[in-house]
Amino acid sequence: MTAILPAFSVKLVAYLRQNRGLKKPTTPPSRFQPFDLLATLVAVVQGNGLVLFANAALEDALGTSRRLIEGADFADSFAEPHVLKNALQGVTDNQFAALRYDAWLKRPNRDLLPVHVIVTQTDQPEAIIVELLPLEQQARQEREERLLDQAQANKELIRNLAHEIKNPLGGIRGAAQLLEMEIDSRELKEYTQVIIHEADRLQTLVDRLLAPHRRPHVVGDVNIHEVCERVRSLILAEFPKGLRVVRDYDTSIPEFRGDREQLIQTVLNIAHNACQALAERMTSGDARLTFATRVARGVTFGKQRYRLALELHVIDNGPGVPDSIKDRIFYPLVSGREGGSGLGLTLAQTFVQQHHGLIECDSVPGHTDFKILIPLP
Predict the structure, then answer these.
(1) Selecting from 3.40.250.10, 2.40.320.10, 3.40.50.80, 3.30.565.10, what CATH number does the domain 220-375 have?
(2) In this structure, are residues 39 and 298 in contact, taking their beta carbons and an 8 Å threshold?
């Protein structure tokens, strides 16, 4: 019944319009309209290269209205137009059913976009499908998959390592306390105190490693801007001089279900790392930390596609992440700062993944951007 009702409704509306003098639609729905539902870039072209249809994703990628794209020669949108023309000619002459190659797509006032081009025959001679897969998007998806796999491996490593350390640690500390009770020499007791204090320090480290796996996930309504404001107040209390915190909020972002305390800790860990990297700029008085929120539409991350997602950017104008650790910053115990524990970003990634999200980092000297992605309802 669900398949019959829409067709019946269309016929009914057409009948009523015809018999009641209502204006009929001037433009019938295009038979290529379903391509608008695809995330990949699609153009339907004739054998001579003229565009019959451009989907919404291609329109967004080119930054040009589809009215300008349709009717134009699609080959002119490429850095090497002759390659597409040869491919279309081959399809028209039935030399092959599909052809793949890499190319550069030209975009007005923007950099060239590397794409993987797939030219495919259809059952209509004058309708050839040209599908474009942005190579940067493919690389991004592969990077996200590596981050997810890495985070899962980190989680197992942390759990196993923490338990292996914790079990003998209690015995070491207990033995040091018993030994201290048997020793009368004040100088020798200093050594037992060293053992006890170091055992306590390791215990604290182990507790921090296990904390995200022990603490229950407390879910409630979260306003991301309340989270940012809380972190902002904490940061300014710790770094009151030489730091300017910029707020660039999209106030239309809805509340979502999540663990507010975990998200506060996540943003605080990232912001705190940024402020420590901004130490020299704070001295000169031009340190800047930016919280920016946006809504991303039709995004894919974590091997899933989401209609809406929160983008929270934590941006600083510091020296950037050192190249030596850029690919490992979310690994446990990896730190770019002398004396750092290397746990802040690991815990932040764990907390965000518990919200089915992901943290990405793009860093060059003078601009480091940590982007938190979380699905929205």
Answers:
(1) 3.30.565.10
(2) yes
Count of CB atoms situated within 10 Å of the CB of 305: 11
Query: What is the pTM for the complete model shown?
Result: 0.55
Give pLDDT tens digits for 210-227.
Answer: 665 555 667 889 999 999
> Pick from 249, 251, 261: which is nearest to 222 by CA?
261
Structure tokens at 214: 């022990």
Closest by CA position to 272, among listed 297, 308, 243, 249 = 243
**Residue 42 or residue 306, greater confidence:** 42
pLDDT in tens, 163-193: 677 778 878 888 888 888 888 887 888 888 8
Domain 9-135 has CATH 1.10.10.10: no
Q: Which pair of structure tokens corresponds to residue 13?
A: 């509306």
